[in-house]
């Protein structure tokens, strides 16, 4: 998969999960993809202070991204 395809797939994944985040007053922004396998995102809105945001990041965001782009190894939230 090319870098462009990986980026497109990560964006598709974020678009799939975004409605769930927005329903709780949050959102997510793609910051970068490094070496085609490490994704940095920024949880925003209510997600920044939510006590379960790490669970959301792992169980929701990371799982969805890996479904669209299986070669992604890590997903981290940056402030």
UniProtKB/TrEMBL annotation:
A Pfam family the protein falls into? NifU
State the superkingdom: Bacteria
| InterPro entries hit by this protein | FSCA_dom_sf (IPR034904), NIF_FeS_clus_asmbl_NifU_C (IPR001075)
Which intervals hold domain NIF system FeS cluster assembly NifU C-terminal? Answer: 12-76
Protein family according to the UniProt entry: Belongs to the NifU family.
User: What name appears for this protein in its UniProt entry?
Assistant: NifU family protein
Question: What organism is this sequence from?
Answer: Flavobacterium polysaccharolyticum
